[in-house]
Target: Methionyl-tRNA synthetase
Amino acid sequence: MTRYIVTCTPPTPNGDLHLGHLSGPFLAAEICQRVLRQAGHDVLFVSYADDYQSYVLRKATELERDPVPFSELVRRTMMLSLESVDIRFDHFLRAFDSPAFQRAARHYLDIVSPDIERRKTPVHICSTTGFYGYEAFGRGCCNWCGASSDASQCEACARKPVPEKMSDMRSIFTGKPMELAEVETYVWHLGRHYNKVAQAHAHQPIRSCLREFLADVLADEADTWSITRPGDAGLQLDSLDEQPLHTWFMGLSGYRATVDAFLEENPERGTFKEWWAPDTRMVHFLGYDCSFSHAVAYCVQQVCDPSGPPVGLFLTNRFLKLDGDDFSTSRGNAIWIRDIAGLYPSDAIRLYAAWFAPETGVRNFEMSEFRKWVEGVYRPLAQSVRDVARTGIPSKPRGSDTGDYWRNSSSIAAWDRHADLDNFSIAGMAAAIIGLADEIAAAPRAERLAGWREFTRISAAICPNLAMTLNGEPSA
Ligand SMILES: [Zn+2]
Model:
Protein backbone atom coordinates (compact mmCIF):
# COMPACT_ATOMS: atom_id res chain seq x y z
CA MET A 1 0.00 0.00 0.00
CA THR A 2 1.29 3.43 -0.96
CA ARG A 3 0.02 6.81 0.19
CA TYR A 4 -1.12 8.92 -2.75
CA ILE A 5 -2.20 12.55 -2.79
CA VAL A 6 -4.23 13.14 -5.95
CA THR A 7 -4.74 16.81 -6.79
CA CYS A 8 -6.91 18.71 -9.24
CA THR A 9 -5.98 22.31 -10.15
CA PRO A 10 -7.93 24.71 -7.96
CA PRO A 11 -10.85 26.26 -9.86
CA THR A 12 -11.27 30.03 -9.77
CA PRO A 13 -14.40 30.83 -7.74
CA ASN A 14 -15.66 33.49 -10.17
CA GLY A 15 -18.43 31.31 -11.66
CA ASP A 16 -19.83 27.78 -11.65
CA LEU A 17 -18.10 24.77 -13.29
CA HIS A 18 -18.88 23.72 -16.87
CA LEU A 19 -18.27 20.70 -19.05
CA GLY A 20 -14.83 22.05 -20.03
CA HIS A 21 -13.75 21.82 -16.37
CA LEU A 22 -15.19 18.31 -16.09
CA SER A 23 -13.48 16.98 -19.22
CA GLY A 24 -10.26 18.62 -18.10
CA PRO A 25 -8.68 17.78 -14.77
CA PHE A 26 -11.74 17.18 -12.57
CA LEU A 27 -13.06 13.89 -13.96
CA ALA A 28 -9.60 12.47 -14.72
CA ALA A 29 -8.38 13.16 -11.16
CA GLU A 30 -11.53 11.70 -9.66
CA ILE A 31 -11.31 8.53 -11.74
CA CYS A 32 -7.61 8.19 -10.88
CA GLN A 33 -8.27 8.35 -7.14
CA ARG A 34 -11.00 5.69 -7.46
CA VAL A 35 -8.64 3.40 -9.41
CA LEU A 36 -5.90 3.83 -6.78
CA ARG A 37 -8.34 3.09 -3.94
CA GLN A 38 -9.65 0.06 -5.86
CA ALA A 39 -6.04 -1.21 -5.99
CA GLY A 40 -5.86 -0.94 -2.18
CA HIS A 41 -3.83 2.26 -1.82
CA ASP A 42 -4.45 4.98 0.77
CA VAL A 43 -5.52 8.10 -1.11
CA LEU A 44 -6.33 11.72 -0.32
CA PHE A 45 -8.14 13.53 -3.12
CA VAL A 46 -7.80 17.28 -2.69
CA SER A 47 -8.34 20.66 -4.27
CA TYR A 48 -9.24 24.12 -3.05
CA ALA A 49 -10.98 27.28 -4.20
CA ASP A 50 -8.41 29.58 -5.81
CA ASP A 51 -9.66 32.54 -3.74
CA TYR A 52 -6.52 34.67 -4.18
CA GLN A 53 -6.78 34.59 -7.98
CA SER A 54 -7.00 38.05 -9.54
CA TYR A 55 -9.99 36.97 -11.69
CA VAL A 56 -12.02 36.67 -8.43
CA LEU A 57 -11.21 40.29 -7.62
CA ARG A 58 -12.20 41.32 -11.16
CA LYS A 59 -15.54 39.43 -11.08
CA ALA A 60 -16.37 40.78 -7.61
CA THR A 61 -15.53 44.31 -8.82
CA GLU A 62 -17.83 43.85 -11.85
CA LEU A 63 -20.67 42.50 -9.67
CA GLU A 64 -20.10 45.15 -6.98
CA ARG A 65 -19.68 42.43 -4.35
CA ASP A 66 -17.18 41.73 -1.60
CA PRO A 67 -14.81 39.06 -3.00
CA VAL A 68 -14.62 37.15 0.31
CA PRO A 69 -18.30 36.12 0.76
CA PHE A 70 -18.75 35.96 -3.03
CA SER A 71 -16.00 33.38 -3.53
CA GLU A 72 -17.40 31.27 -0.67
CA LEU A 73 -20.83 31.25 -2.33
CA VAL A 74 -19.24 30.08 -5.59
CA ARG A 75 -17.13 27.43 -3.79
CA ARG A 76 -20.31 25.88 -2.33
CA THR A 77 -22.01 26.04 -5.75
CA MET A 78 -19.05 24.23 -7.32
CA MET A 79 -19.18 21.45 -4.72
CA LEU A 80 -22.88 20.85 -5.46
CA SER A 81 -22.23 20.81 -9.23
CA LEU A 82 -19.46 18.25 -8.78
CA GLU A 83 -21.64 16.11 -6.48
CA SER A 84 -24.28 15.96 -9.21
CA VAL A 85 -21.76 13.95 -11.28
CA ASP A 86 -20.52 11.92 -8.29
CA ILE A 87 -17.31 13.87 -7.72
CA ARG A 88 -16.47 14.46 -4.05
CA PHE A 89 -13.08 15.65 -2.83
CA ASP A 90 -11.86 14.43 0.55
CA HIS A 91 -11.42 18.12 1.14
CA PHE A 92 -12.06 21.21 -1.00
CA LEU A 93 -10.50 24.00 1.05
CA ARG A 94 -11.62 27.57 1.26
CA ALA A 95 -8.28 29.38 0.99
CA PHE A 96 -9.44 32.78 2.28
CA ASP A 97 -9.07 32.98 6.07
CA SER A 98 -7.49 29.50 6.27
CA PRO A 99 -4.71 29.38 8.92
CA ALA A 100 -3.39 26.18 7.25
CA PHE A 101 -3.10 28.05 3.93
CA GLN A 102 -1.17 30.90 5.54
CA ARG A 103 1.14 28.43 7.33
CA ALA A 104 1.83 26.62 4.06
CA ALA A 105 2.49 29.84 2.11
CA ARG A 106 4.94 30.97 4.82
CA HIS A 107 6.63 27.56 4.67
CA TYR A 108 7.33 27.76 0.93
CA LEU A 109 8.32 31.42 1.15
CA ASP A 110 10.97 30.37 3.72
CA ILE A 111 12.05 27.50 1.46
CA VAL A 112 12.69 29.81 -1.51
CA SER A 113 14.05 32.80 0.50
CA PRO A 114 17.75 32.14 -0.38
CA ASP A 115 16.77 32.66 -4.04
CA ILE A 116 14.65 35.85 -3.85
CA GLU A 117 15.60 39.51 -4.21
CA ARG A 118 13.56 42.72 -4.23
CA ARG A 119 13.97 44.68 -7.45
CA LYS A 120 12.14 46.78 -10.04
CA THR A 121 10.17 44.82 -12.63
CA PRO A 122 8.13 45.99 -15.63
CA VAL A 123 4.33 45.73 -15.44
CA HIS A 124 1.48 47.30 -17.42
CA ILE A 125 -0.87 49.81 -15.84
CA CYS A 126 -4.18 51.35 -16.91
CA SER A 127 -3.80 55.11 -16.46
CA THR A 128 -7.60 55.59 -16.19
CA THR A 129 -8.46 52.96 -13.55
CA GLY A 130 -5.07 52.48 -11.91
CA PHE A 131 -5.35 48.69 -12.21
CA TYR A 132 -2.12 46.85 -12.97
CA GLY A 133 -1.98 44.34 -15.82
CA TYR A 134 -0.31 41.47 -13.98
CA GLU A 135 -3.17 39.17 -14.92
CA ALA A 136 -6.96 39.65 -14.92
CA PHE A 137 -7.06 43.39 -15.64
CA GLY A 138 -5.17 43.46 -18.91
CA ARG A 139 -4.90 41.46 -22.09
CA GLY A 140 -2.56 41.54 -25.06
CA CYS A 141 -0.64 39.24 -27.39
CA CYS A 142 1.72 36.59 -26.00
CA ASN A 143 5.32 37.31 -27.07
CA TRP A 144 6.01 33.55 -27.41
CA CYS A 145 3.11 32.40 -29.61
CA GLY A 146 1.11 35.53 -30.55
CA ALA A 147 -2.16 34.27 -29.00
CA SER A 148 -4.40 36.56 -26.95
CA SER A 149 -3.21 36.26 -23.35
CA ASP A 150 -3.01 37.89 -19.95
CA ALA A 151 0.48 38.72 -18.71
CA SER A 152 0.59 35.82 -16.24
CA GLN A 153 0.49 32.52 -18.18
CA CYS A 154 -0.55 32.04 -21.80
CA GLU A 155 -3.57 29.72 -22.23
CA ALA A 156 -2.32 28.65 -25.66
CA CYS A 157 1.41 27.94 -25.17
CA ALA A 158 1.59 27.85 -21.34
CA ARG A 159 4.68 30.13 -21.27
CA LYS A 160 4.78 33.17 -18.97
CA PRO A 161 4.74 36.20 -21.29
CA VAL A 162 7.43 38.88 -20.93
CA PRO A 163 5.47 42.13 -20.25
CA GLU A 164 7.82 44.44 -22.19
CA LYS A 165 7.68 42.13 -25.22
CA MET A 166 3.87 41.71 -25.28
CA SER A 167 2.03 43.67 -27.96
CA ASP A 168 -1.36 45.42 -27.98
CA MET A 169 -1.77 45.25 -24.19
CA ARG A 170 -5.17 46.71 -23.30
CA SER A 171 -7.10 47.44 -20.12
CA ILE A 172 -10.04 45.08 -19.52
CA PHE A 173 -12.30 47.80 -18.11
CA THR A 174 -11.59 50.61 -20.61
CA GLY A 175 -10.28 48.75 -23.69
CA LYS A 176 -7.56 51.42 -23.92
CA PRO A 177 -3.84 50.62 -24.40
CA MET A 178 -1.98 50.10 -21.12
CA GLU A 179 1.32 51.78 -20.32
CA LEU A 180 4.46 50.06 -19.13
CA ALA A 181 5.56 51.00 -15.60
CA GLU A 182 8.14 49.72 -13.13
CA VAL A 183 7.13 48.26 -9.79
CA GLU A 184 9.24 46.75 -7.03
CA THR A 185 8.49 43.05 -6.56
CA TYR A 186 10.16 40.05 -5.00
CA VAL A 187 11.83 38.12 -7.80
CA TRP A 188 12.61 34.41 -7.45
CA HIS A 189 15.69 32.96 -9.18
CA LEU A 190 14.02 29.59 -9.62
CA GLY A 191 16.06 28.66 -12.71
CA ARG A 192 19.00 27.84 -10.42
CA HIS A 193 17.24 24.56 -9.60
CA TYR A 194 16.01 23.61 -13.10
CA ASN A 195 18.64 20.92 -13.52
CA LYS A 196 17.31 19.02 -10.48
CA VAL A 197 13.71 19.49 -11.65
CA ALA A 198 14.56 18.11 -15.10
CA GLN A 199 16.12 15.05 -13.46
CA ALA A 200 13.00 14.53 -11.33
CA HIS A 201 10.76 14.60 -14.43
CA ALA A 202 13.05 12.52 -16.63
CA HIS A 203 11.55 9.12 -15.85
CA GLN A 204 7.95 10.17 -15.18
CA PRO A 205 5.32 9.01 -17.69
CA ILE A 206 4.23 12.53 -18.70
CA ARG A 207 2.48 13.38 -21.97
CA SER A 208 4.53 14.56 -24.95
CA CYS A 209 3.27 18.18 -24.99
CA LEU A 210 4.41 18.67 -21.39
CA ARG A 211 7.69 16.89 -22.13
CA GLU A 212 8.38 19.38 -24.98
CA PHE A 213 7.33 22.37 -22.85
CA LEU A 214 9.67 21.31 -20.02
CA ALA A 215 12.60 20.78 -22.40
CA ASP A 216 12.21 24.42 -23.56
CA VAL A 217 11.59 26.06 -20.18
CA LEU A 218 14.04 24.10 -18.03
CA ALA A 219 16.91 24.87 -20.43
CA ASP A 220 16.97 28.47 -19.14
CA GLU A 221 18.74 28.28 -15.79
CA ALA A 222 18.79 32.11 -15.55
CA ASP A 223 14.97 32.13 -15.45
CA THR A 224 13.28 34.33 -12.82
CA TRP A 225 9.68 34.84 -11.70
CA SER A 226 8.11 37.64 -9.66
CA ILE A 227 6.25 36.08 -6.74
CA THR A 228 4.54 39.25 -5.48
CA ARG A 229 2.15 41.62 -7.23
CA PRO A 230 1.75 44.94 -5.37
CA GLY A 231 -1.69 46.43 -6.03
CA ASP A 232 -3.26 43.13 -7.13
CA ALA A 233 -5.00 40.15 -5.50
CA GLY A 234 -2.93 37.80 -3.35
CA LEU A 235 -2.07 36.81 0.21
CA GLN A 236 -0.48 39.54 2.31
CA LEU A 237 2.04 38.10 4.78
CA ASP A 238 3.54 40.34 7.50
CA SER A 239 7.07 39.63 6.32
CA LEU A 240 6.32 41.04 2.84
CA ASP A 241 5.37 44.69 3.27
CA GLU A 242 2.53 45.61 0.82
CA GLN A 243 3.74 42.83 -1.45
CA PRO A 244 0.95 40.21 -1.69
CA LEU A 245 2.13 36.76 -2.79
CA HIS A 246 0.27 35.94 -5.99
CA THR A 247 -1.82 32.80 -6.20
CA TRP A 248 0.35 31.04 -8.81
CA PHE A 249 3.21 30.87 -6.32
CA MET A 250 0.92 29.24 -3.76
CA GLY A 251 -0.53 26.19 -5.52
CA LEU A 252 1.63 23.66 -3.70
CA SER A 253 0.86 25.62 -0.51
CA GLY A 254 -2.83 25.12 -1.32
CA TYR A 255 -2.49 21.35 -1.68
CA ARG A 256 -0.38 21.15 1.48
CA ALA A 257 -2.89 23.30 3.39
CA THR A 258 -5.84 21.21 2.19
CA VAL A 259 -4.17 17.99 3.38
CA ASP A 260 -3.27 19.70 6.67
CA ALA A 261 -6.80 21.05 7.26
CA PHE A 262 -8.40 17.71 6.30
CA LEU A 263 -6.23 15.69 8.70
CA GLU A 264 -6.86 18.17 11.50
CA GLU A 265 -10.57 17.33 11.19
CA ASN A 266 -10.03 13.61 10.43
CA PRO A 267 -7.19 12.41 12.68
CA GLU A 268 -8.21 8.77 12.09
CA ARG A 269 -6.77 9.11 8.54
CA GLY A 270 -3.26 9.73 9.90
CA THR A 271 -1.08 12.69 10.82
CA PHE A 272 0.09 15.49 8.57
CA LYS A 273 3.70 14.39 9.15
CA GLU A 274 2.86 10.89 7.91
CA TRP A 275 1.14 12.21 4.80
CA TRP A 276 3.33 15.18 3.79
CA ALA A 277 6.38 12.93 3.66
CA PRO A 278 9.07 11.77 1.20
CA ASP A 279 7.41 8.37 0.64
CA THR A 280 4.04 9.83 -0.39
CA ARG A 281 3.40 9.96 -4.13
CA MET A 282 1.64 12.95 -5.64
CA VAL A 283 -0.38 12.74 -8.84
CA HIS A 284 -1.49 16.10 -10.28
CA PHE A 285 -4.16 16.71 -12.90
CA LEU A 286 -3.99 20.07 -14.65
CA GLY A 287 -4.80 21.94 -17.79
CA TYR A 288 -1.74 22.28 -20.04
CA ASP A 289 -1.89 26.06 -19.49
CA CYS A 290 -0.97 25.53 -15.80
CA SER A 291 2.23 23.67 -16.71
CA PHE A 292 4.64 26.43 -15.65
CA SER A 293 3.33 26.84 -12.11
CA HIS A 294 2.82 23.14 -11.48
CA ALA A 295 5.50 21.23 -13.35
CA VAL A 296 8.19 23.92 -12.95
CA ALA A 297 7.67 26.30 -9.99
CA TYR A 298 6.14 23.83 -7.49
CA CYS A 299 8.77 21.27 -8.41
CA VAL A 300 11.50 23.78 -7.53
CA GLN A 301 9.77 24.24 -4.16
CA GLN A 302 9.76 20.45 -3.77
CA VAL A 303 13.40 19.83 -4.70
CA CYS A 304 14.35 22.55 -2.17
CA ASP A 305 12.26 20.89 0.56
CA PRO A 306 13.27 17.25 1.08
CA SER A 307 10.96 16.93 4.13
CA GLY A 308 7.86 16.82 1.91
CA PRO A 309 6.68 14.61 -0.95
CA PRO A 310 9.04 14.46 -3.93
CA VAL A 311 8.16 15.71 -7.43
CA GLY A 312 5.16 13.68 -8.55
CA LEU A 313 3.41 12.84 -11.78
CA PHE A 314 1.80 15.64 -13.81
CA LEU A 315 -1.00 14.65 -16.18
CA THR A 316 -2.06 17.48 -18.46
CA ASN A 317 -5.13 17.99 -20.61
CA ARG A 318 -5.83 20.30 -23.55
CA PHE A 319 -9.02 22.34 -23.97
CA LEU A 320 -12.52 21.18 -24.83
CA LYS A 321 -14.28 23.41 -27.34
CA LEU A 322 -18.04 23.83 -27.65
CA ASP A 323 -19.49 23.90 -31.17
CA GLY A 324 -16.09 25.03 -32.50
CA ASP A 325 -15.72 27.93 -30.06
CA ASP A 326 -13.95 28.26 -26.69
CA PHE A 327 -15.99 27.59 -23.54
CA SER A 328 -16.60 31.07 -22.16
CA THR A 329 -18.39 31.99 -18.96
CA SER A 330 -18.58 35.69 -19.84
CA ARG A 331 -20.03 35.12 -23.34
CA GLY A 332 -22.41 32.40 -22.09
CA ASN A 333 -20.86 29.79 -24.41
CA ALA A 334 -20.88 26.97 -21.87
CA ILE A 335 -22.73 23.85 -20.80
CA TRP A 336 -22.94 23.97 -17.01
CA ILE A 337 -22.41 20.71 -15.15
CA ARG A 338 -25.55 21.36 -13.07
CA ASP A 339 -27.65 21.74 -16.25
CA ILE A 340 -26.46 18.62 -18.05
CA ALA A 341 -26.69 16.61 -14.79
CA GLY A 342 -30.38 17.58 -14.63
CA LEU A 343 -30.99 16.03 -18.06
CA TYR A 344 -28.80 12.90 -18.24
CA PRO A 345 -27.62 10.15 -15.86
CA SER A 346 -24.35 10.91 -14.08
CA ASP A 347 -22.75 7.72 -15.46
CA ALA A 348 -23.65 8.70 -19.04
CA ILE A 349 -22.03 12.13 -18.59
CA ARG A 350 -18.95 10.61 -16.93
CA LEU A 351 -18.48 7.84 -19.50
CA TYR A 352 -18.86 10.20 -22.47
CA ALA A 353 -16.70 12.96 -20.93
CA ALA A 354 -13.98 10.37 -20.21
CA TRP A 355 -14.21 8.80 -23.67
CA PHE A 356 -14.12 12.27 -25.28
CA ALA A 357 -11.48 13.76 -22.92
CA PRO A 358 -9.04 16.18 -24.64
CA GLU A 359 -6.00 14.44 -23.15
CA THR A 360 -3.45 15.18 -25.86
CA GLY A 361 -5.31 17.43 -28.31
CA VAL A 362 -8.20 19.91 -28.43
CA ARG A 363 -11.63 18.21 -28.85
CA ASN A 364 -14.87 19.78 -30.00
CA PHE A 365 -18.02 18.91 -28.02
CA GLU A 366 -21.40 18.99 -29.78
CA MET A 367 -24.56 18.45 -27.77
CA SER A 368 -26.32 16.70 -30.69
CA GLU A 369 -23.51 14.11 -30.88
CA PHE A 370 -23.74 13.51 -27.13
CA ARG A 371 -27.53 13.03 -27.35
CA LYS A 372 -27.10 10.52 -30.18
CA TRP A 373 -24.46 8.64 -28.17
CA VAL A 374 -26.69 8.50 -25.06
CA GLU A 375 -29.57 6.96 -27.05
CA GLY A 376 -27.42 4.70 -29.24
CA VAL A 377 -24.70 3.53 -26.82
CA TYR A 378 -25.39 4.42 -23.19
CA ARG A 379 -29.11 3.61 -22.83
CA PRO A 380 -28.81 0.08 -24.35
CA LEU A 381 -25.77 -0.56 -22.11
CA ALA A 382 -27.58 0.62 -18.96
CA GLN A 383 -30.60 -1.56 -19.91
CA SER A 384 -28.33 -4.63 -20.27
CA VAL A 385 -26.84 -3.85 -16.85
CA ARG A 386 -30.31 -3.68 -15.28
CA ASP A 387 -31.34 -6.94 -17.00
CA VAL A 388 -28.25 -8.75 -15.71
CA ALA A 389 -28.64 -7.26 -12.23
CA ARG A 390 -32.25 -8.56 -12.06
CA THR A 391 -31.02 -12.18 -12.24
CA GLY A 392 -27.83 -11.40 -10.29
CA ILE A 393 -24.21 -12.31 -11.01
CA PRO A 394 -23.07 -15.32 -8.98
CA SER A 395 -19.76 -14.58 -7.25
CA LYS A 396 -18.55 -18.16 -7.89
CA PRO A 397 -18.04 -19.67 -11.36
CA ARG A 398 -20.71 -22.04 -12.61
CA GLY A 399 -20.61 -24.50 -15.51
CA SER A 400 -18.42 -23.20 -18.29
CA ASP A 401 -18.73 -19.74 -16.76
CA THR A 402 -15.20 -19.97 -15.33
CA GLY A 403 -13.73 -16.67 -16.42
CA ASP A 404 -11.03 -18.33 -18.55
CA TYR A 405 -12.74 -17.08 -21.68
CA TRP A 406 -12.05 -13.48 -20.65
CA ARG A 407 -8.31 -13.87 -20.15
CA ASN A 408 -7.79 -12.98 -23.80
CA SER A 409 -10.18 -10.01 -23.84
CA SER A 410 -8.51 -7.10 -25.62
CA SER A 411 -10.82 -4.64 -23.84
CA ILE A 412 -9.83 -5.87 -20.37
CA ALA A 413 -6.14 -5.74 -21.34
CA ALA A 414 -6.63 -2.19 -22.65
CA TRP A 415 -8.36 -1.12 -19.42
CA ASP A 416 -5.59 -2.60 -17.26
CA ARG A 417 -2.98 -0.78 -19.35
CA HIS A 418 -4.73 2.61 -19.23
CA ALA A 419 -5.63 2.40 -15.52
CA ASP A 420 -1.91 2.07 -14.72
CA LEU A 421 -0.23 5.40 -13.88
CA ASP A 422 2.48 4.61 -16.44
CA ASN A 423 -0.10 4.88 -19.26
CA PHE A 424 -2.98 6.61 -17.49
CA SER A 425 -5.79 7.58 -19.83
CA ILE A 426 -9.47 7.97 -18.98
CA ALA A 427 -10.24 8.03 -22.72
CA GLY A 428 -8.53 4.65 -23.06
CA MET A 429 -10.36 3.28 -20.01
CA ALA A 430 -13.74 4.51 -21.26
CA ALA A 431 -13.20 2.99 -24.71
CA ALA A 432 -12.29 -0.32 -23.01
CA ILE A 433 -15.53 -0.30 -20.98
CA ILE A 434 -17.64 0.26 -24.11
CA GLY A 435 -15.56 -2.37 -25.93
CA LEU A 436 -16.10 -4.97 -23.20
CA ALA A 437 -19.88 -4.47 -23.35
CA ASP A 438 -19.68 -5.27 -27.09
CA GLU A 439 -17.48 -8.31 -26.41
CA ILE A 440 -19.98 -9.60 -23.84
CA ALA A 441 -22.87 -9.23 -26.30
CA ALA A 442 -20.90 -11.25 -28.90
CA ALA A 443 -19.74 -13.96 -26.43
CA PRO A 444 -21.34 -17.41 -26.04
CA ARG A 445 -24.27 -17.20 -23.62
CA ALA A 446 -22.53 -19.37 -20.98
CA GLU A 447 -19.59 -16.96 -20.77
CA ARG A 448 -21.52 -13.72 -20.39
CA LEU A 449 -21.99 -13.65 -16.60
CA ALA A 450 -18.23 -13.96 -16.07
CA GLY A 451 -17.87 -11.11 -18.57
CA TRP A 452 -20.23 -8.95 -16.52
CA ARG A 453 -18.17 -9.73 -13.39
CA GLU A 454 -15.16 -8.24 -15.23
CA PHE A 455 -17.33 -5.36 -16.41
CA THR A 456 -18.22 -4.55 -12.79
CA ARG A 457 -14.51 -4.30 -11.93
CA ILE A 458 -13.46 -2.13 -14.86
CA SER A 459 -16.51 0.16 -14.92
CA ALA A 460 -16.50 1.01 -11.19
CA ALA A 461 -14.21 4.07 -11.44
CA ILE A 462 -15.95 5.73 -14.38
CA CYS A 463 -19.54 4.46 -14.04
CA PRO A 464 -19.89 3.87 -10.29
CA ASN A 465 -23.69 3.66 -10.47
CA LEU A 466 -23.73 0.95 -13.17
CA ALA A 467 -21.17 -1.02 -11.14
CA MET A 468 -23.28 -0.68 -8.01
CA THR A 469 -26.35 -1.88 -9.89
CA LEU A 470 -24.41 -4.97 -11.05
CA ASN A 471 -23.29 -5.55 -7.46
CA GLY A 472 -26.92 -5.43 -6.33
CA GLU A 473 -26.34 -2.17 -4.42
CA PRO A 474 -28.67 0.82 -4.68
CA SER A 475 -27.02 3.54 -6.79
CA ALA A 476 -26.14 6.91 -5.25
ZN1 LIG B 1 1.66 31.97 -25.86
Notes: Residues 142, 144-145, 147, 149, 154, 156-157, 159 surround zinc ion (CB under 6 Å). The mean pLDDT is 94. Residues 366-470 form one domain.
